Amino acid sequence: MRRLFWRIFAAFWLANVAIIVTLAWITTSRFESERIPGLEITRLQAAMDDHLKRLARDARRGGAEQLEHSLRVAASMGPLQFYALDADNVDRIGKKPSREVLDAATAFRSGQPALSERMRMTATTLRDDGAEIVLVAAAEGSMFARMIYRRGVGFWSHLGIAMIVSALVSALLAWYVATPLARIRASTRRFAEGDLDARVGTLPFGRSTEIMALAEEFDRMAGRIRDLVENNRRLVRDVSHELRSPLARMRVALELARGKDATPIDKTIDRMELEADRLEAMLAQTIELSRLETRPERSVEVIALDELLEDVLANADYEGTPSGRRIVFEKSMPVRVRGSRAALASAFENIVRNAIAYTSGSDPIEVNMRVAAASDRVVVEIRDHGPGVADSDLERIFEPFYRTDAARARSSGGTGLGLAIALRAIINQGGRIIARNADGGGLAVLVDLEVVVDAH
Predict the structure, then answer these.
(1) Is the alpha carbon torsion for 114, 118, 123, 128 positive or negative?
(2) pLDDT tens by residue, 250-304
(3) pTM above 0.70, yes or no
(4) Cα dist from 334 to 303, 378, 381, whole Å
(5) How many domains does the chain have?
(6) Are 77 and 43 in the same domain?
(7) What are the C-alpha distances in Å from 140 to residues 149, 210, 291, 307, 429?
C-alpha cells in the first residue's frame, strides 16, 4: 500500500510540477514576444523602458546615492539586468557588464545605438556631479535562465505555495486511487493463496466508474472460478462414487467367471460388457459436462428450431419404439433461434431420453413448441407421463449425478448427467430451463430461448 501510494503520488506531483513549469515558460515567452498594439514594441521592451525611466528619474532627483540604491533593488527583483555605465564603461555598483552591453553603450554614445529586442538604453545626468551616464537594461541568458534566475521573493513564495498545493492535491488523488487498488490487490492475493471466497465487495473510497468496474469484474471472475472449482471437485467426487458400483459388479462377475460355478460364462461376460458400456457412457457424459462448464462458448449461427427438434425427436422415437414409447410433436410455427446446433441438439436429446426412461405405460411423450404473442421468446415443453418428482427436487434434478430414485435410475441405464448437461448447454446459449410437475401426473421440462425475428 505504501509503495503504491508513493508511486502514484510521485506521478501526480511530477505531472503538476511539469504543468507549473510549462505555464511559467509560456508566460515568460508570451511576455517577451507579445507586442503592444500601437507601440510596435514587446511587453518586455516596455517593461525595460519603464525601469530605465524610473532609474533616470531617481538619478536626476537623488544623485548617485539614490541611483545606486535603485540599481541594487532592481537587481534583486527579476531576470532583467540594469547597468549604469560612466564614460569609461564602469558600472556604478561594480557589476561586470557583458561585451554586448559594453558595445551597445559605446554605440549609443556615438549616436548610433544598436538596440536589440533584449536590450534597451537611455542616457541621464547625475544631479550632484553633472556626470553623464548611460543606463542599460538587458535581458541576458536563455529564456529558461531568465525564467528562474534572480527572481524576486514574491515569485519564489508563489512558486512554493503552488508546489505545496500541488503536493496536497497529489496526495489526495494518490490516496483516492491507491486505497481501492490496494484492496483489489489484497483480494487478488488472498484468492491466489486459495481463499476462493475472497471478494473486493463495496469500495468505501475511490469509487470511480473504472475502479468499480474493475472490482466488479474481479468479483465476477472470482465467483466464476470458485463455481468451476467446486463443480470440478463435486464432479470428481461424484464420478468416483458412481464408478464404484459398476466396478464392484464387474469384479463380482470376474470372480464368478474364475470360480466356474453354475452361472453361465456368457451371462457373466454380458454383465461385464453392460457395465463397461455404462462406464463408457458415464465418462463420455462427464467429459461433455466438464467441457460445457469450462468453455461456455456460444455460437452465432441461426438455427431452425422446429427442424432441429424434428431430427432429435425422430431419432428418439426410433429408439423408444421397441419399448412402446411414442413421441407427439406439436409446433405452432417455424421458429429460428441463435446458438450452437450441436449444443442445442444435445440438450434436447438428453431431455427427451430422460422422458422416455420414466414414461410409464403407453402414454406418449408430448413435445410442444409455442411462441407467445408479441414476444421474442420461444418455449419448448417436453412432458412425460411418469411418476414426477417431489417439489423439493425440481431444481436438484439438474445437478450432476442427482437421482430421486437411485435404484430405478440405474435400472433404466441413466447416469444422472443428462439433465445437468442440458442445463449447462441451454444456459450457454442464453436460454433458461426449468422443471415442474404437470397437471395429471408426469414431469414437464420447459426450455426458453430467444427468437431471431429477422433472420433470413
Answers:
(1) negative
(2) 666 666 666 655 556 666 666 666 667 667 666 676 666 666 666 655 566 888 9
(3) no
(4) 11, 11, 16
(5) 3
(6) yes
(7) 10, 50, 77, 90, 76
